Amino acid sequence: MRQGLLKLAPQVSAIVVLAVVTLALWAAWLGWDQNRDVQPDGTTTGPYEAWQVIGLVLTLLAPVCWAASRRYIAGAVLGSTAGLTGAAYYDWSDDGSGLFVIGVGMVMMGSFVVTAVLSAVIASATRNGRWAAVAPGGRP
Hints:
Strands 1-2 form a two-stranded antiparallel ribbon. It is 69% helix and 6% strand. By secondary structure, it is mainly alpha-helical. The mean pLDDT is 86. It is built from four helices and four strands, in the order αββαααββ.
C-alpha cells in the first residue's frame, strides 16, 4: 500500500504544479485584456489578440514538455487541462448569455486532446528526462 502511495505522490504533485503554472500563464498572457476592440465597420473582435494566445501556448509548452519527459503524463495532461479550464471558466463566467460554458468546454476538450498527444510523443521520445538517441536502424 505504501509503495502505491509513493508512486502516486509525484503524479499528484505534478498535476497541482502544472495547474498552478497554467493559471499563472493565463493570467500573464490573457488575464489583463478584457476589452473588445470595435472595428471601423462596427464589428467587434477580441478580447484577446492572436499574439497573446500564441504566447500562452508557447510558454505552456515548456512545463508540459518537462512533465512529459519525466513520465508525469497525468500531471502534464490533467494539470494543464484543469488550469486552462479553470482559468477560462473564471475569466468568461461573467457572460450574461451563458454561452461561455460552450467555450469553456471547447477549451477543456481541446487542451486535453492536444496535451495528451503531445505528452505521448514526448514521453516516447525521451528516457529519464533526456532525449533518446535513435540508432541508424531505427532502434534506440
